[in-house]
Amino acid sequence: MVSIAAEPYGFEFDPARAALLIIDMQRDFLEPGGFGAILGNDVALLRRTIGPTRTLLQAARESGLAVIHTREGHRPDLSDLPPAKKARGKLAVGIGDAGPMGRILVRGEAGHDIIPELYPLPGEPVIDKPGKGAFHATDLDAVLKNLGVTQLLVCGVTTEVCVNTTVREANDRGYECLVIADCVGSYFPEFQEMGLRMIKAQGGIFGWVAPSASVIGVLTAKAA
Ligand code: C5J
């Protein structure tokens, strides 16, 4: 057990029971010309998470930490896409429609895949999730339990949507979540700030927040 400097107080980290969870670092959210961009978002606000997440991912792999990736998306026949989710936003081009990188948020399409900078290694579980939370309608809980994981180091996008939803789901299931501040991103700077503040408020109501440097130092020391 080692204490990681975090807010609202030190995170008692047990690497043997922890996993790095990287949420939805998909081309359609992060790449210029993808779904996020055609909705008018500035993907640079998400792309600034790539460098620190890559460094953290490398440290996690070298120290033997479990690594799990998620992707938001749907079956090609859209049978797992709730009509309410499809209709939301009244988008001219939305989920399931032809987009710049294939059908938007459909499994198997180029835009649905994880960005090359953070591509999963063989053996790293990839959880395909139809919702915002990574526990909803997935086997993530079973995968974590089978690995003996009770602590999650959380990275990914977007801070206020899939990251926050997943952390809240995890918290209710008894997992301890440390959200890595510079490895989560939002298209909206105010949501980035509030998304992190909501997690660590009230004595860490949903979890802890720390910069990647605090975690990398600990992982590097472990690997040495
Ligand atoms: C969104 C996500 N924002 N991964 N998805 O629709 O946060």
In short:
The chain is of the alpha/beta class and 224 residues long.
List the helices and strands and how they pair.
Elements: E1 2-4, E2 11-13, E3 18-23, H1 27-30, H2 35-38, H3 44-47, H4 50-63, E4 66-72, H5 83-87, E5 98-99, E6 102-103, E7 126-129, H6 140-147, E8 151-157, H7 159-172, E9 176-185, H8 189-204, E10 208-210, H9 212-223
Helix pairs in contact: 4-9, 7-8
The structure holds dicarbonimidic diamide.
Characterization of the model:
The protein has 224 residues and is α/β, with parallel strands linked by helices. It has a single domain (2-223), classed as 3-Layer(aba) Sandwich (Rossmann fold). 36% of the residues lie in helices and 21% in strands. It is built from 9 helices and 10 strands. A 6-stranded parallel beta sheet has the order 7-4-3-8-9-10, sandwiched between helices. Strand 8, helix 7 (159-172) and strand 9 form a beta-alpha-beta unit. Helix 4 (50-63) runs parallel beside helix 9 and helix 7 (159-172) packs parallel to helix 8 (189-204). The radius of gyration is 17 Å and the shape is globular. The relative contact order is 0.21. The model has no long low-confidence stretch (mean pLDDT 97). The protein binds dicarbonimidic diamide.
